[in-house]
Write a structure and sequence with these properties.
single chain; mainly alpha; 3 helices; 111 residues
Length: 111
Amino acid sequence: MRMKWNSVLKSLLKTAVYVMDQTADQVDRVSDRASDFAQDARTAIFPEEDHTLRNVLLFAAGVGVGAGAALLLAPASGEDMRNSIGEKVQDISDKVKGRVSSQHYGATGTE
């Protein structure tokens, strides 16, 4: 008699596990369908987001922060910096003019 009860108990437990497994699979499928439905609804209500304006504003803010940091951390005053840049540009201009004037081109482009 004891063997019979063990066999019945095993069958009941196997059946319970099978039912729980099937129920879990059905819950997963329903959950996936609900998620898909919610995503479709979100897409219908709120179309694709356009981040262009946000990106432009962030870029402008970055440029502003960089310029502010450059002004605060510059080793010389603004006037000294402008004079130094002007002198370097003048030096480069003089070098280019010197090289161009030392070369003579004929009217036809041949030497």
